[in-house]
TrEMBL record, chains A, B, C:
One of its GO terms (biological process) is thiamine biosynthetic process. Belongs to the Thz kinase family. It catalyses: 5-(2-hydroxyethyl)-4-methylthiazole + ATP = 4-methyl-5-(2-phosphooxyethyl)-thiazole + ADP + H(+). It comes from Cytobacillus depressus. Catalyzes the phosphorylation of the hydroxyl group of 4-methyl-5-beta-hydroxyethylthiazole (THZ). This is Hydroxyethylthiazole kinase. It comes from the Bacteria. Pathway: Cofactor biosynthesis; thiamine diphosphate biosynthesis; 4-methyl-5-(2-phosphoethyl)-thiazole from 5-(2-hydroxyethyl)-4-methylthiazole: step 1/1. The keyword ATP-binding applies. SUPFAM superfamilies: Ribokinase-like. It holds the Pfam family HK. It is an enzyme of class 2 (transferase).
Length: 267, 267, 267
């Protein structure tokens, strides 16, 4: 059932070509645009407070990524988030680095109060900080925390009334009632920048063409992990992380329902 | 004659190494820098209002790209544009997303009033919005409009006293008197971000080493379309849009007068 | 002795995984993040003045890059630099484009007054401008100046009480007493954007795991020049600067003490 729903999304996304508005960081913004295109969406990245609401009104989904926030982009994020809620399109929130500094954590909690977020995607430490947990962080990197990722995802989904996607060695997606684990992936996904951010773009692209946001979250997350695994397998001797990045985008762009069904491993 | 003029530009650009100043978006800024280098120019990307005029004074051409404008970058664009006009170097304007939001359209029209633009490069919808046309837009993507691209290019060139370059399935370049159509290209040029922006960088690089701006516009546009076609032909099984991006830059960097003359198709 | 010190750094960096905070330009910010990861560090790129000091407190080294400074990022740089000095972590300064405009030169000199900089990495023109020299510049590109690079490096190190790294056809590193020259490299390192910026990230990554900053500076500089040479040698017919960029990152990510020792050429 879930498998069939997700398989259908691969067909719908190519036809629907959802417009995905991003307010994101300037480190991986190009990667996010290309990941959106690779899966069949159209990216827009306007950030001026004077036009974000107008741009959201043209969009099918919104990504908010905290990677390099400052006061000005945060204001744009609030306007965009409220416009998305008003229009009824899904908001995907990527709390990059939350937990690392008080500024980030406070803004994230403020954002969740003011905007209804459909899907949150982060690593365990970031998501843990969102629900009030304290963990030792190292910048934007994850460290281990004291509750299982399954519990964390479920608790986050329930407490924040959202769908929680936690990326890691295995990925966990929970809507508070159902919790799904994905066993795909490769450690090299952590050796390049942007794979988390691109995952949020993939999730939002799927979310832009369906009301079944739980399936969209699973689709986006599993596409990244499966593509990351396939790209690694395609590397030949003498190829490092530069080539890995290129082949990762290749694999996202070639992903379809058949490749996905044959490759995805639910745990 | 035109062919010979353009062939000569390939030699002149390697010798002249024009400095091309950009005030552009932060999605494709890296692509624009590398495209400029690939064709033989040198990119500069300063945006601080305190130094843009000084930087323009060192440059041979200026690119203004509206991809992620806000009030602060717009002010820098005006200063840079006026400095370019004063110095007498060509200004290439890429009206990304114009027509999608009132903010963008108003700023674009304001910019055209205050700065003499030598060459405008956009897709049909964006250019249509510049001359007062109304079209349904989807973010920064083009949709079909009601006049032919040939008419649109010619009318834009005449009305705005500029050279108009309209990218699309076939490309149209007009100076208001002559109109040229290019048949090269590949649909995959629309499957990665930045190909339009990079085209403006290529055009500006050529415009920085000649007074024949019509030839420069044709040269820059046709290099991108031909490179896009050649990159696609070089893809092998299992390669997707990640590899396509890499090979596109490869092809731009290897383009010379001979490859160009053998490959370009005027319609 | 120096060789052995540097060989050891390759092992220490993989274990130590230094967190390298950057306040850098938005042209090559993604390249810097990936170069940091490729060598074994973890990049962070926060720029909001409200959190830079907190982020620096988590970091092992700080990179300040002037590529696209404006008043707001400059303020963040000062705060980050002071926090780094207070914490006692190394500051690597990349004076991109200094000498090209008064704005850049004044800010650079102001920065050096207010922040203790451990290592400066630039091309000869930029570094020359830092010590009060006047050279004809072309935007962010180097032109020849009137003193030898060896003298310039030594003088800069002494005058500014720092380690000076001058990139070029051969690279020169001086701590004011010892001066080292590296003969590796390839002209193609100048045909793509970001190789200088990435060098600063490599240097800072090494500097984040040792007190021997002179060795760290030599290690970072030589890794880039050797990787650039190896990447060029790996190109096959039909590959241009797009593929070169990818293979450059590949080579950085595969660099270890053995490859380095066999390949590095001190002059």
């Amino acid at each position: 059932m879930l498998i069939d729903n997700i398989k259908e999304l691969f067909l719908k996304i190519k036809k629907g070509n959802p417009l995905v508005h991003h307010i994101t960081n300037n480190v991986t913004i190009n990667d996010c645009a290309n990941a959106t295109l690779a899966i069949g969406g159209s990216p827009v990245m306007a950030t001026s407070i004077e036009e974000v609401a107008d741009m959201v009104n043209l969009a099918n989904a919104l990504v908010i990524n905290f990677g390099t926030i400052d006061d000005s982009t945060y204001e744009a994020m609030l306007r965009a988030g409220k416009a998305a809620n008003k229009k009824g399109i899904p908001v995907v929130f990527d709390p990059v680095g939350v937990g690392a500094t008080p500024f980030r954590t406070e803004r994230a909690i403020d954002f969740l109060k003011k905007v209804d977020v459909s899907i949150i995607r982060g690593n365990a430490t970031e998501v843990f900080a969102l629900i009030g947990g304290k963990a030792a962080t190292r910048g934007v990197d994850a460290v281990e925390i004291t509750i299982s990722k399954e519990e964390l995802a479920k608790k986050t989904a329930q407490q924040l009334n959202t769908i929680a996607v936690i990326s890691g060695k295995h990925d966990v997606i929970s809507n508070g009632e159902e919790t799904v684990k994905i066993g795909n992936g490769d450690i090299w996904l952590t050796r390049i920048t942007g794979t988390g951010c691109m995952t949020a773009s993939l999730i939002a692209s799927f979310a832009g063409i369906t009301d079944d946001l739980f399936s969209a979250a699973i689709a986006g997350m599993s596409v990244m992990s499966l593509a990351g695994e396939r790209a690694k397998n395609r590397l030949i001797d003498g190829e490092g992380i530069g080539t890995y990045r290129v082949k990762l985008i290749d694999e996202i762009s070639m992903m379809d329902s058949q490749i996905w069904e044959e490759g995805v491993r639910f745990l």
